[in-house]
UniProtKB/TrEMBL annotation:
Superkingdom of origin organism: Eukaryota
Domain annotation MULE transposase: ranges: 49-99
The name this protein goes by in its record: MULE transposase domain-containing protein
InterPro entries with a match to the protein in the record: MULE_transposase_dom
Source organism (scientific name): Dipteronia sinensis
Amino acid sequence: MLPTLFYMLEQSDHGTVTKIETNSEIWFAYRFMALGACIEGFKAIIRQVISIDATHLKAKTRGVLLVTVWKDGNEMIYPLTFGFAHSECTESWTWFLNQL
């Protein structure tokens, strides 16, 4: 269902960028999503610093949620991109930051 969700996001929110990478067993290895509205907001008010972080997911599928955010002109946290990976490791971060 995730490819369908990503397709619908790209169709309804122009400028949205998504990417799914699978491993050899056809399981999702990495997922990346940047909503078009967030990208446009970032282009309109670019700040010099983007923060990155990850949090471990406790659901049945486990893994980690990788996030980039920045502060807008009102000092409010503004999301930019989201990614999902199997673990927080150099390979996951490298893939995520290359998508960014």
